[in-house]
């Protein structure tokens, strides 16, 4: 019996273990951290052997194949030992793809992928499609393949998930953009990160579709290096020679495969970044055969994504916006670009090799103060102290919101758009956003 070892037992790893068990493999799960109770219960219900807070080498290095959770870096000691033994390492997505014939709609990009993924799922679900939501959001793809049956999966893919995918193929691939992110995981080499994102096109054929933002300079340069066989669907903010979807005269236009248009004012999502998300989602739904009426209905009824420019409340005339998902500089740029009020900006966390020069002009134009929320804010001070804005350093969310409230005034906005990962002070990005909202409610 082939032996599958799963490293990491959160959503991805636990789901992969269940699918492996269902398919008749000898399965063992190992996690260097403590496993959450809900995942222990899931593994136990399938009779899967697991360990936590350590790795037992003898039980891991006898595997025929390793399924690695995306959060585990390539230089982790156990991964190094696995590679020395030449044991194949794959991702949960790669493994799940072997056991389903469902159409795969896959979305990646440095920014916008969660909103675009959620919007595509919303349109297809509302149109009556038998569709699952998976990847970085939703439930594990592998677990859904094991326990459900869907005709379509809409999957958000991070660069980490793409790294260990080899035979998996996207029927529809969507690439939003590529800007510096996670460089700490890629030896601080931008090209390594770019190469990971471009894997979204891997194994595509003439029968597949590749949707991408035509105005992204990195994507444009990379396309010249690749012989992409899939049908190309470039989109742009404005009409151009290449773009098949764009805006013109305040209309949202898709030229192919089925011509479609609607007034921009009818779109549920506002802001330039959300225009790109809506264009990508509209093209995807069009390719998937959703009717014009249902595309229009979906694009106009979507309510947005939690922790992405989410309204966290208004206190004495001050608006609070939760953009905790903005874990890179480009995401913060789009958030600031959409601000119409004087803004107190919250920055900070675990730096991933950020270059803050990209947002300096917008901070100078839009911001009335900065609050740095992080263990080490030295890089932020080096980037922003010269602007002459009021700056406060804090080490917890309660103090952060309190200082922002003092700094703001009626008619202003407090924007949590940190540019950084959350792991220095919070469990994750969601925890950071939830604490922000709770502190705002307690003002």
Structure description:
The relative contact order is 0.09. The chain contains 17 helices and 20 strands. The mean pLDDT is 93. It folds into three domains: 3-90, 3-Layer(aba) Sandwich (Rossmann fold), CATH 3.40.50.720; 94-301, UDP-N-acetylmuramoyl-L-alanine:D-glutamate ligase; 310-441, Protein-Tyrosine Phosphatase, Chain A, CATH 3.90.190.20. Helix 1 (11-22) links the parallel strand 1 (3-7) and strand 2 (26-31). 35% of the residues lie in helices and 22% in strands. The protein is an alpha/beta fold and 443 residues long. Helix 1 runs parallel beside helix 2 and helix 16 crosses helix 17 (429-441).
Topology:
Elements: E1 3-7, H1 11-22, E2 26-31, H2 37-45, E3 49-52, H3 57-60, E4 65-68, H4 77-84, E5 89-90, H5 92-97, E6 103-108, H6 113-126, E7 131-135, H7 141-147, E8 152-156, H8 159-163, E9 172-175, H9 190-198, E10 209-213, H10 217-223, E11 231-238, E12 245-248, E13 251-254, E14 260-263, H11 272-287, H12 292-301, E15 310-315, E16 318-322, H13 329-338, E17 343-347, H14 360-366, E18 367-373, H15 378-384, E19 391-394, H16 397-407, E20 413-416, H17 429-441
Helix pairs in contact: 1-2, 1-7, 6-11, 6-12, 16-17
């Amino acid at each position: 019996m082939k032996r599958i070892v799963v490293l990491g037992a959160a959503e991805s790893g636990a789901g992969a273990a269940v699918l492996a068990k269902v398919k008749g493999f000898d399965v063992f799960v190992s996690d260097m951290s403590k496993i959450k109770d809900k995942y222990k219960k899931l593994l136990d219900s399938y009779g899967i052997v697991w360990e936590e807070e350590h790795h037992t080498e003898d039980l891991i290095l006898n595997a025929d194949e390793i399924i690695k959770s995306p959060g585990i870096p390539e230089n982790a000691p156990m991964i190094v030992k696995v590679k020395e033994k030449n044991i194949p390492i794959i991702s949960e997505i790669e493994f799940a793809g072997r056991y389903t014939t469902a159409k795969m709609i896959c979305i990646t990009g440095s920014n916008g992928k969660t909103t675009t993924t959620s919007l595509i799922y919303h349109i297809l679900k509302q149109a009556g499609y038998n569709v699952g939501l998976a990847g970085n959001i939703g439930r594990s793809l592998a677990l859904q393949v094991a326990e459900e049956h869907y005709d379509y999966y809409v999957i958000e893919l991070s660069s980490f998930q793409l790294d260990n995918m080899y035979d998996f193929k996207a029927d529809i691939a969507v690439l939003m953009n590529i800007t510096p992110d996670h460089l700490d995981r890629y030896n601080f080499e931008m090209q390594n990160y770019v190469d990971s994102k471009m894997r979204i096109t891997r194994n595509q054929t003439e029968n597949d579709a590749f949707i991408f933002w035509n105005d992204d300079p990195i994507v444009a340069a990379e396309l010249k290096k690749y012989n992409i066989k899939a049908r190309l669907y470039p989109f742009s903010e404005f009409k151009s020679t290449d773009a098949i979807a764009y805006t013109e005269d305040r209309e949202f236009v898709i030229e192919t495969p089925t011509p479609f248009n609607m007034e921009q004012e009818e779109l549920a999502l506002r802001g330039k970044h959300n225009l790109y998300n809506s264009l990508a989602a509209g093209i995807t739904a069009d390719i998937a055969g959703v009717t014009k009426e249902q595309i229009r209905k979906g694009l106009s009824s979507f309510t947005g994504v939690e922790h992405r420019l989410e309204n966290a409340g208004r206190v004495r005339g001050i608006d609070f916006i939760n953009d905790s998902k903005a874990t890179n500089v480009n995401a913060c740029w789009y958030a600031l670009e959409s601000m119409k009020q004087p803004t107190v900006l919250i920055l900070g966390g675990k730096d991933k090799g950020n270059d803050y020069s990209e947002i300096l002009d917008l901070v100078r134009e839009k911001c009335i103060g900065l609050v740095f929320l992080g263990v080490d804010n030295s890089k932020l001070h080096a980037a922003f102290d010269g602007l002459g804005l009021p700056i406060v350093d804090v080490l917890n969310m309660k103090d952060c919101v309190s200082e922002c409230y003092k700094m703001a005034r009626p008619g202003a906005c407090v924007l949590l758009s940190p540019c950084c990962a959350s792991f220095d002070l919070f469990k994750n990005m969601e925890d950071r956003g939830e604490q922000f909202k709770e502190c705002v409610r307690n003002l």
